[in-house]
Amino acid sequence: MQAIYIPHLLQIPNRTQTLLLDDFVSGLDTLTPVRGKMLIRHGGTFLEIGLRVETIMTLSCDRCLQQYNHRLTLDTSEIIWLDKNADLPQNFPQEREIAWEDLSETLSPEGHFDPNSWLYEQLSLAIPLRQLCGKDCQAPRTKPDEKPPIIDSRWSSLESLKGQLPQ
Ligand SMILES: [Zn+2]
User: Fold this and answer.
1) Which residue from 37, 63, 62 is spatially nearest to 50, judged by alpha carbons?
2) Could you read off the pLDDT of 43-85 as tens digits, one per residue?
3) Do the Cβ atoms of 30 and 24 come closer than 8 Å?
C-alpha cells in the first residue's frame, strides 16, 4: 500500500478512499494475510479512518507456554486531525500544549497518510496483553496459590506426637 497524499482525497467521490486489504503486514507475524477493508475519509479538518480486518496470529500461552492460533478481528475507527503545524512540533505555542496532548495523532493537511504503519499500529494494539490458549488451559506448573498440600515428614511426625500427648 502506498502512502496517500492527503489533498488527493478531496478530489475523489465522497472524499473517501477505500482500500481492500489482503496481504501480510510487514513487521507483524501473522499466520494468514490481513484481510478486510480500510476507509479513509477526508473530513475537512480531520481524516476519519475506518478499519475492519481479520487475521490469525500464532501466540504463545502465558500459562502453559504452548503456541496457539488466535483470531484477531478489528472493527475500529480513528480520527486524525489535520493541522498545518503538525510537522513543526517545536513551533507549538506554549498555551496549546495541553490541548495537543489530547490528540492521538495529527498530520499536516498537505502531508501523507501511511496506511501500512497505521494498520500495523492498530493490529499491534489489538494483540491481547494476557495470552491464554483457552479457558480450560491447564498449567504444567501449579501457581503458588494452587499448590497441593505439601506433606512434610516433620509435620506428620509432629501430628503423630500430638496424638500421643495427653489432652
Ligand atoms: Zn495454555
Assistant:
1) 37
2) 999 999 999 999 999 999 999 999 999 999 999 999 999 988 7
3) yes
- pLDDT score of 131 more than 50: yes
Rounded to the nearest whole angstrom, what is the distance from the C-alpha of residue 67 to the centroid of ligand 1? 8
* Dihedral pair phi/psi, residue 25, rounded to 5°: -100, 125
Give me the phi and psi of 69, to 5 degrees please: -95, 135
**Number of compact structural domains in the chain:** 1
Residue type, 26: S
For residue 59, report the distance from its CA to the centre of ligand 1, in Å. Answer: 10
CA of 128 to the centre of ligand 1 (A): 14
Furthest-apart CA pair in the chain: how many Å? 97
Query: Which residue segment(s) compose the domain that 8 sits in?
Result: 4-164
Cell reading at 104: 492521538
Summarised one tens digit per residue, pLDDT across range 21-30 is 999 999 999 9
